[in-house]
Structures are given as structure tokens and as C-alpha cells.
Amino acid sequence: MSRRAWLLGAAASSVIACGSAASSSSNSGGASGAVAIAGSENSSAGSALTDAGAAPTGGAGAATQAGGGPTGEPLACDGLADFIAAYKASHAGNGGKDWDINAKTPAELAADPDAQRLLALCGANQRPVIPILAWEYGGADHAWMSPEKSALVYCVYTPVAPSSDNWSYDAAQDKVIADVYVACPDQNPCAAETGADQVAACVGDPTNFEILVDTASYADGADAGLRLSNASTDLMLILADSSKVLLHTDI
């Protein structure tokens, strides 16, 4: 088991109140939230992003106030960068690891409503990877390299059982295939690129892919009853037309 999986293990079985209240898991293709990805099984159901510019690649959203309102209200793309920067500045402990929302325990999340709001940026069975807050664990732990070169938020589908259209596991091959999309595409420096380069050309550093890969096997799949510590991974990027392209392979 990776060190990251160990850190996340305690959180894997938790249900984030903010996210679950705003979302409902669906396998029928209908979106219950304002942000949807046409053609994806879960359609980003329950994503809390509701600004006109907030839709992930391939979706469309309805407007709300910039930056969200009091604790518990959805965050919007307009003002989100400032909200994230303020969160980072106020969680500088533990060498900066305290700002990694995906490594927090259930108790830490329960005491951190702003982290709950950030986790709710993506829909059901997804986790947001926010470069300015994200860390890679194992060996020499390090934060996301050159986050200023990357999109503001990536949404990564996480382990489910049985498999879905957006996340699957082949036990015979010990292989994960997980979808990724760019939330707030208007805040992606590579939005004008084509295909996988919408992410790959702005990833900042090749090692940053490991953070996306780790998120796709969140907690080594423990919450879904899986053991993914040695699994290979294909990350698939959902494009604006709902098609998918291979983004990255980790063996």
C-alpha cells in the first residue's frame, strides 16, 4: 500500500456531508446537479459548480453568485481562484500538507466546512484535484509542481463497484481506467489546445500525473472493496463533445 493510500484510508469510507447533500449518484445518465457532462454515465451528478463558466469540459451550467455565499452554498468558477488561494493561506501547517483536501481524515473534514465545499466541486464518485493544493506522497513528498501552469481544478472519477462508464477495473489485468475532466474550462491555460493536450500541455511537470493517477485509485479502492495498490492506470480525458481520449498511462 502506498503512503498516500495509508493517509487516505481513514477517509475512504466517509461520506462528505456537503457533497452528498448536493449530489445523488445516478447510473441512468441523468444529471441531478446543475453541471453535466453529456454522455457520461454519472453526468457529473451533484457537482456544486453552478456558474455559467463552471461547467466541466463537455457540460453546461447555470449561473450563481460569484465565489459562492455563506458556508454550505455552492462555489462558482467566478471567484473560485481567490477562494482556493485564501484556503491555502489559512492552512499552511504541516509543511503545507494541511491544505491537501484529499488527504484529510473524516474528523478533519467535519471541522473544515471550506474543505467540504471544495470537495463538492466535482460530482458523485469524483474527487477534485486542485493543483495549488495537491500533494504527491511516497519517496520525496512534494506539492504539485508549477501549479500556475495548470488548470484551476481537475475532476477525477474514483473507485466504484461495480464498474461504471466513467471508472472501471479489470481484475484479470489489474488495470484501472478512469475518466478525468477539466472543471472551469475558462480557467484552463490550455483550453485552446486539442485532445489530450488540453491537460497534458499544461500539467506543469510529468510527475504531477502521479497525483491524478493516485486519485483515480483513491485509498487503493478500499471504499469499493478493491485492492488497487499495484494496478496500472489509464486516464481518459472527457472532451467538450463528450468523446474521450487517452490522457496518460501509468504502469
Detailed description of the structure:
The chain has 251 residues and is an alpha+beta fold. It has one domain. The strands form two sheets. Strands 1, 4, 5, 6, 7 and 8 form a six-stranded mixed β-sheet that branches. It has a two-stranded antiparallel sheet with strand order 2-3. Strand 5 and strand 6 form a beta hairpin. The longest helix is centred in the N-terminal third of the chain and has 10 residues.
Coarse structural class = alpha+beta
Number of domains: 1
Oligomer kind: single chain
Major sheet size, sense and barrel closure: 6 strands, mixed
Secondary structure tally, helices: 7
Order of helices and strands: HHHHHEEEEEEHHEE
How much of the residues is beta strand, in percent? 15-25%
Distance between the amino and carboxyl termini: 16 Å
Share in helix: 10-25%
Question: What is the total tally of β strands?
Answer: 8
Structural Rg: 16 Å
Q: Any low-confidence stretches, pLDDT <50, length ≥5? A: 1-46, 50-70
The average pLDDT score comes to 79
The shape is globular
What characteristics describe this protein?
disordered N terminus; single chain; 8 strands; globular; 6-stranded mixed β-sheet; two-stranded antiparallel ribbon; alpha+beta; 251 residues; 16% strand
